[in-house]
Amino acid sequence: MFVLPPPPPRYTIPVAYAAGAANGMAVPVVETNNTISHPEGGCPLQVGEGTYTLKDDLLLATPPPHPSEAPIINPNPLATVPNPPTCGVKLSLVSLDPRKKPPVFLKAAISAPQFGEGNSALAPPAAPPAKDALKRRKPKNNIIKSSSSFVSRVITHETSAKRLNDRDPNGVFAFANINRAFQWLDITSASKEDHLTKVLFTKSHMLCHDINELTKTSSHLDIVMGSSAGDIIWYEPMSQKYARINKNGVINNSPVTHIKWLPGSENLFMASHANGVLVVYDKEKEDALFTPENTGIPEKEIPLEILKSVNSRNQKTNPVSSWKLASQRISNFAFSPDQRHLAVVLEDGSLRLMDYLKEEVLDIFRSYYGGLICVCWSPDGKYIVTGGQDDLLTIWSFPERRIVARCQGHNSWVSAVAFDPWRCDQKTYRFGSVGDDCRLLLWDFSVGMLHRPRAHHQNSTRQRTSLVAPNSQSAARTRADSGANRMRSDSERTENFYEFEPVTSHPIEPRSRTAMLPPIMSKIVGTDPICWVGFQNDCIMTSSLEGHIRTWDRPSDSVINNANSL
Amino acid sequence: MKKGIFHRGPRNGATNTPSPAPPNPKKDPQPPQISPLEKRLQDMGPIRVDGSDKFFGMENYGNTCYCNSILQCLYYSVPFREAVINYPQRTPLESLEAALAQNLRFPNPNAHLEAEAQAAKQKATVPSARQAGVTPNQPQKPEDKESPEYKKKIALQTLPILEAKNNSTSYGMSESLFTSLKDIFESLVGSQSRIGIIRPQQFLDVLRREHEMFRTAMHQDAHEFLNLLLNEVVSNVEAEATKQSFTEKALPPSESADSLGLTNSSGSKSPNTTRWVHELFEGILTSETKCLTCEKVSQRDEVFLDLSVDLEQHSSVTSCLRKFSAEEMLCERNKFHCDNCGGLQEAEKRMKIKRLPRVLALHLKRFKYTEDLQRLQKLFHRVVYPYHLRLFNTTDDAEDPDRLYELYAVVVHIGGGPYHGHYVAIIKTEDRGWLLFDDELVEPVDKNYVRNFFGDRPGLACAYVLFYQETTLEAVLREQAAEDQASSAAAAESSTQQPNGNLFHVHSVPTDDPNRLTPIHKITTAPGQMPVHPEVPEHEPTTPHAPLAPQPVQPPEVPQAPPIPSEPPRALSPKKSDVQSRKEKAREEKEMRAAQKAADKAAKEEREQYEKMERIRRKEADQLRQAQIKQEAADLEKALRDSKQTSKVAAVDIGPENGSPRESSKFNIFRRGSRSISHRLSKDKEKEPRVSTSTSDIAPTPVPEVPAQQTEPVSLPVVTKDPSELSSSYTSVQTFPPIQENPSNDNHVYNANPKANGSSSHTNLPFISTSPGTLNNSNPINFHSPVYSPNGNGSSEKSGNSNGHTTRWRSFSFKKSAAS
User: Fold this and answer.
1) Where are this protein's WD repeats (chain A) (predicted)?
2) Which CATH architecture has domain B276-478?
3) Looking at per-residue confidence, does B724 or B433 come out higher?
4) What number is the ipTM of this complex?
5) Number of residue pairs across A and B with CB atoms under 8 Å?
6) What is the pLDDT of residue B410?
């Protein structure tokens, strides 16, 4: 007997179902429900502190195509029509439970000024009558009754009102995008697979979303989400109200690749667009046709082209500010814990560190090769970790402005990275990463344990520790290197480089001079690329391209778990 | 100005084609429309001499897409193109022009309209005949203007057609695969048109003459072809070098220096050695084996021209490349013979790259032999590839271990299996972005388009061969800066209407006056001057290619002689590469319409004839394939039956020779070590093919591997086209057993007698080929043969092969290490 091998792996990508239909793939035609499963044998993650056990695997239902968006059957695999942008499932989690807050590592209280502080035009617009501090301003339009062509329909689960009333007030809400749907889930409830509300959009796919941590209350959540069309939705799920910002791409018509509320801001959020522009919007402000305020093409290439400064006097309408970093896609960005800095990663392979309050780029680092995809800060703000198309995670020291180590372990591109603040302390750091190789990897690093490659051990002591005050020898090398690798290599332009641009463009460290860090755990956790990873006080969660949301409980003997099971 | 007289390709007999009947203006949106490619090629400035501005499709002669896609990839490798053009010397542009003047044809721009009308008519009358001939892919409605088939048809009918002719005597070489490659490249470089279609007929003729494996209309493996071509170029060049070393002694050395140095205008290094293929594509792999008993590390270097990597689902090229450097234990039955301890010992082995090639050709092993099915199966694994790459698995002493590569070409295989399908190439050109080369069709594509072929998308299209070329970070940054600038300029343009890029527009301003563009065009060759050949003196002051220096090998008159086509030369219409040529032509046609009417009609008929023939040819090919498939199925069954009892023995026995080349490469030295593979393999569920995987990739029929291992000869049926070739083809091969004739008419049975090969290092796979040529030439086997086998490579084509350099480098297969 011959055992026939499985058919060629043609897994269904929800995002490409239109094309899938053309290929004879099963495509949902009716609205389906989320399903939950508890895989036999689990998928335990074994690490030093114990075993993380897979609690469940929640599969989000891929919505059927919108009636107006009939699957385009194009049998030609070489068709040059561009594919609409889409992405796998990402989660935004929110809990009101103070115990679920990640530990804070910053010694001093955050004292960063507000974005645009000092610009009177940005001063609290007309001093909104704060009758009740808890009474949050809601968006204007009701999403259920909306006649917008952007929103297709809203499906509220029949029991959701009851569930909302009965739920544990400290439970965790999750918001997830899948295809053209956006689901609101209560992942601490018993029936967590049933969505509370599902919003279906007509054509656009939501690519990213974020919840405002500052304004969250039991009756109010400010969510912003960015779509493949460039439109941004400000959504308040409790009241089912929404507002549309950057409507029809009036400010920037390129897909929104990442979106985050400005730390410490109730109204302002930042969105990165696929055309390399970072825009700060105000959820309260109206759109206006945007023309760059600085006229013409800049004479010289600069790392940051300010299309509109936060200091602009014209702050009646969106955007608050708009900066062009490159023409390439901005993959991701992250705010530093001290709320002063911004790390941006781009498809061109650069990591750009910004003082976003001053609208300046400070440093440019580069991936080993290929584009960068994800970035995050260590909870204490000392380190930045990036992941990219070189299959590597790279640890950068923020105060020293240098590469610390490259982490090899993924078999494909790294799609997301996050620190586990519950397992970080001042000396050691834990972070996790997921990638297109369907793997979840966990990493531990402490500066002391990093060993540099043998051949260059002696060099490590005079490794550039700081670019601010380098010793002469390494300074010479830095200059030489960065001279060759700087953003602008045209000789006539470099003349003015140091006068006007305090930006340091760092050379790529050769492999022989960089520490290589192995993972402490590597596990294939699914059959489709994983695109998001998050740490909670009691679990690790991942979500995948096709909509699998997996949750691992922390080891039962873990101190944390004991502390929280009170 | 002479007005153009259009004629079609040789099959049409090159009749004088008067302008067609006035096309119905309502029905004629085509001529004024510029194609996406033409749009991309705006602002190109004058024709360049380095060939970087030529974007030609290649005619498909029936399943020759493997050849077309690889040739395109090689052409757009700048150093390779330069080397080919400049070795042994660059043909002077003038003589090229003379040849090209006869080889380039400008078709009637309205031809397709009539062909269409004709086709419609024909379809109405004989619908069945048409349908039988079309490829299964072709939609029933022929009016699908977006279909590649339609676009190709239009391209063939409207674009200039360039026939690559043998010009080898002009640079003093005898015709070979290299010279025909050079002829193609030179034709493109010397062409006055930027776009068009080149006919690699001569190249294919040579290929088929020397390699019988390619004689059928069968689907061939593009990677195999690449490897064969590079090896051929190496041996052709080296044969030439040996020849020159005899003849050149008589010549003053300065002249040859002139021909190499002076004529090289583009500033690239001229290939003054014969090792330029090696310098570009060759890398060195080191296998380090550490005996666990005495701790002694033994090393062994091997060269490769391309790397074949095993694939895993959801992996990246980086990871596939890294996998092969993973340590591997040689233990149990697999032990390593340590010279130091003098016995079989457990050892640790790993492969690393010691010298990085300048052009890294990566072959993704999408065709995997599955034991269960006993044949190759295509893997649709999602394997991502970045635009840039560095290699992790370098040795400590490797030079420039952090070398940065950029992806510049992707060969895509479309189809469900290894025995059929289609190849296209997606190539990053020097300054016009990414283009899709699909036989006759050349289309600009978005940079993101390159990422559509990871393997997970519907449509069965997967990247199959990736070409990475060395680059520097500065170059990458420059390019990114240029992209930034372009995008902001585009943004500015859209808002301000008037772009500031007018400087570039000078040469592409559509104009009715073809003579307007002369001043700069003189530098190269003005399009308008082409028919008037005695322009040559004008070039001398400006062109560095002026053939002032006497040609060392060949008098300058000779070049013109051979390439003259059989048709009488025609006056050509002044061809301009850009939009205006279309308009110009349209206008001219109007004037000449009356005169040309009659001839046009004739041409039409001929076109029909041609199309008919084409259809018949395709039909034949189809039928052949059908027959083949049937045959395969039958064979498979038979082989399965035959093999059942013996399969286990075979798996072990055959392994050492046929395991992945990396293993077998050490066969001579670590005889025992290589056996480990077979052991390992037999443990694997999905066995590595016994053959070096890449070899098995091309086996055009399912290879029942087992029977060959039986002691008595086992019949392996082969479909062949021309039985008469058998006798001659067979003579040079000693490693293969005699051939028996099958009772059936066209099918031949080969007895692969493994005993005959047992002692050689040959891959004595039960090689089944579509043509006897496979056996004759021993190429497909030979260049995969792990060691430079002395007996394997004296095949018929080369006599000067005796020195060691001409050994064929095989491509290198990486073995997948066990997944964690």
Assistant:
1) 365-406
2) Alpha-Beta Complex (3.90)
3) B433
4) 0.85
5) 172
6) 96
